[in-house]
Amino acid sequence: MKADIRAALALTTIVVASCNHSHDAASDATPADVAPDDASPPDGHTMTTGGIAVTPQFFGQHWSTIPEWPSISFGAGKFGPGIEWNTIEPSQGTYKFGSLDSWIVANALAGHQQDMTFMYAAIHTPSWAGGTGHRTSDLYTTLPNGCLYPPLKGAMITDCSLKEYLTAVLDHVCTGTAPHKTCSFTSWELHNEVNANDTEWIDSYADLAQMDADAVATIKGQCESCIVLGANVSAGGDGSHAAGNTSPEWDTFLIAYLAAWPAGAQMPDALSWHPYPSRDNLVNIPFPETYAGSDCPAGAPNPVCRQTVVDQIQRIRQIADAVPGMAGKPIWATEGGFVNTELVNANPTTQSELRAAYVARYLLALASGGVAREFWYEWEDPTWGSEWDGGHITSVGIANQQVYDWLVGNSLAGPCSNGGSGTVWTCSLTGPGGLVGSIVWDTAGTSTYAVPAEYLYWRDLTGPTKHPVSGTTYQIGISPILLLNQ
């Protein structure tokens, strides 16, 4: 595949004059702040009278190398290494699109054609523009000759270098006339884990919000149908901002970031976050919906184990809905998974089951909780959430495929639930032709489950085989099973 991709494209280097090259006049306009109430949301699911209909686009994948294109089913992906700002524009006005082109060409090959996201579009600010973790150096600079885009609404500030970089990418990957251009990918995410540490972000909320508001206007000014996500935050890890003046706490940061958004500027189309379940690498980590069985200190939630993934979904929805221009907009989980050493057991079979159970319960929590898209981290990484070990699909990849098969084309009635207490969780499912199903598991371990009489078959996370139900009870455990009436 590498040879095919190299033959299909020439590595591209473009040199332009900073702040002066031509652009579509229509792209100078600032789009309206709020989309019409009847605008279709950029979802990986749709809300119907029957519940949540999950589409393939809900299932997203991270991976790092083009030859290792995931072999399981998924509807959305992200571009891998080589697409950072400092790689694409290593010196001001010189653009190198070779790596980005490689991903675009690979995605066009037969059997691919995923809905790709240009994640972290403004990550790794080049040193000439201010450096990684900083605002662009010209954010508050008055430029006598102006910029590609005039200062916002008369304000004498500009972040010309970021706007020019994004415009160069748009010119390279899009065709047509602004603001109705068609691009090689449909969605853009602007920064990565800005609450995590000083290498990701070090300056003020106002600086970040100004940059991102200008980025939204720049992208939407040329491709109004493109989906633009703001900066994402991480709910996991030991975040710290020793040199900065912003919070490491994901929800505190997100609230302040949205509050600092420039008045009158268009808001992002969606919010994104990374729903990791704890603040440090615990062995074992909490599962997405419970602290049970984890190494969380007694009495969780606490500063180490602050929120389950289920809690995080509710929290980010609350944050979005409290902000004018963001209420009701989609929520994306643009990275999530676990470090492989966090889910370990002396028995390799049990370890394999732990990891498969985690990915299944993670996907079910997000899909049933109304999250529009998720991106598992990652396909071939040997350390993080591995779905491929270099020669075989792991239990994690197999489980991911099973949940995809269970959900796509069917509808979830609502959030999976334990009824408010207890350890048995269920998700109600309906589908075409009168299909009815229940997904069920026990967070505490093995227990006896009374199978409703309507269910005739069951499936588990090990493969697609549909087994006949035998008897009126079934021994359930930490791994979800699907019960079906047909």
Provide the descriptors you would attach to this structure in a database record:
486 residues, alpha/beta, TIM Barrel, 2 domains, 9-stranded parallel β-sheet, 8-stranded antiparallel β-sheet, 23 strands
Describe the structure.
The chain is of the alpha/beta class. The protein folds into 2 domains: 2-416, Glycosidases (TIM Barrel, Alpha-Beta Barrel), CATH 3.20.20.80; 430-484, no CATH class. The protein contains 9 helices and 23 strands. The chain has helices spanning 2-8, 85-88, 98-107, 160-173, 205-222, 250-259, 309-321, 348-368, 395-407, and strands at residues 13-15, 45-48, 51-54, 59-61, 76-78, 94-96, 115-118, 174-175, 182-183, 187-189, 227-229, 233-234, 271-274, 331-337, 373-377, 411-412, 424-431, 435-442, 447-450, 457-459, 467-468, 473-476, 481-484. Strands 11-10-7-5-4-15-14-13-12 form a 9-stranded parallel sheet. β20 (457-459) and β21 form a beta hairpin. α4 runs parallel beside α5 (205-222), α5 packs across α6 and α8 (348-368) packs parallel to α9 (395-407). Residues 1-49 and 148-157 have low confidence and may be disordered.
